[in-house]
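S1.2 Input.
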Amino acid sequence: MQDLQFGAWVDDFLAGLWVTVYVTVLAAVAAVVVAFVLGIAVRTRHIVPRTIARIIIELFRGTSLLVQLFWFFYVLPEFGFRFDPLAVAVFAFGLNFGAYGAEVVRGAINAVPTAQWEGSIALNLTPAQRMRRVILPQSIPLMIPPFNNLLIQLLKSTPLIFLIFLNDLTFYSDQYRNSVGNENFIFPLLLVIYFVLSYTFTLFMHVLEARANTRLGRPVERRRIFKYRGPQEEEAVKV
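S1.3 Output.
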């Protein structure tokens, strides 16, 4: 550790780790909210909210996340809207990944069998009650695996935030490289840290998926939560 001169950088790396995790969690929450709002709005019969939702989805899916970060951070202040770097990061990441998540929400809702829609109508439930009590509980387990993929992509995109002056893991790794060198040490360490974070988030999403399936009467054994599942096993869980 002395040869690597890493001891003096431990506090900085812990601070960078906190920023990375904090931005990931806040942006993920924002993305879920955006995904549900846009995913449900794009299915409405009313043309105005449907059109607005579709425009937002295509705009943020079709443009670069880096450009969006720069636009919110450098361009909006020219119009009198100034935000701190953390707010910009959460806002940009939330809208970008929320736009992708909106298609996940829309697809999962459409995947609910027609019989469930017809049954909820026969029970004389209002549209809001149908969505809240019948459709969403059955569609959420279908959303979680692709949401997990988006969460990992979000985490791996967080190195962009050092470009708007947020000091994350990547920032301190680059500072260490510039000051000390030892690229053969710092970048493999960074890979390991991001892998551990990614796998931790993946296990958390597996737990959420298991709980969602259990609420639908499809309990999942605990050992399966922490086990790799291939495509055939995924289908078995759903059945």
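S1.4 Remarks. The first helix runs from residue 10 to 41.
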